[in-house]
Amino acid sequence: MKNIGGLDFIKTKMQSTPSPKKDSAYYFTKKSVFGNSSISNVDKVFIGDSISDYGEFQEYFPGEVVLNRGIRNDWTGGVLNRIQEVVDRNPKEAYLMIGVNDLRYKTEGEVYKRNVEKIVDSFRGKDTKLAIQSILPVNNGLFGNEVTNDQVKRFNVILQQIANDKGIEYIDLYTSFIDKNGQLDKQFTVDGLHLNGKGYKVWVDRLHSK
């Protein structure tokens, strides 16, 4: 019983904190930097975890004010904890991609759904055009089996349903990145989870073409 209690305690702690303990300094540093920025007249903002964090989105949209609000290892609870900073800037467009770390941290589907709904509802009454982007596939041969694409697809169904219910755009990026075996195509990644430069170009091209 002692071991089970210990596992339950760890799971509870992982779901009640903004980001994993090992990366909390990075989370709170980035949150502080974001909060103290005075930038205004924002055209686009990208919200998410490391997959957003690592993208140089401002270089793909010259002439626009583009913010990157990705934080590595973040999950829906962490985004919810910092979303007001984005909302208050009233950006013209906001692109949310979050969920692969929720899968890694074993977030329950109902908790995930509730958190995403709260993130979306934060923009209520604002002029921002919010879009929910699908979670990307993983390549289990490179990344391992911590997350499966069946899990990703299950969470993407939740995202699509939320978008439908809330009357906002859902952008299916998942199908743009899978190979014939249903895995994240190796040409778009080094580690099986994150995108390389070619992958980011596919992502941005998809946004340009929508």
Could you explain the architecture of this structure?
The chain has helices at residues 2-16, 24-35, 50-53, 76-80, 83-88, 100-104, 109-121, 140-143, 149-166, 174-177, 197-209, and strands spanning 44-48, 66-70, 93-97, 129-133, 169-171. With 210 residues, the protein is of the alpha/beta class. The radius of gyration is 17 Å and the shape is globular. The longest helix is centred in the C-terminal third of the chain and has 18 residues, at 149-166. It contains 11 helices and 5 strands.
Strand content: 5-15%
**Helicity, as a percent range:** 40-55%
Radius of gyration: 17 Å
Average the pLDDT over all residues and give the rounded result.
Answer: 91
- Measured between the Cα atoms of the first and last residue, the distance is 53 Å
Indicate the structural class. alpha/beta
Beta-strand segment tally? 5
> Main beta sheet: strand number and arrangement?
5 strands, parallel
How many H/I helical runs? 11
**Element-level helix/strand string:** HHEHEHHEHHEHHEHH
**What's the arrangement of strands in the largest beta sheet?**
2-1-3-4-5
Low-confidence stretches: 1-17
What best-fitting shape do the alpha-carbon axes yield?
globular
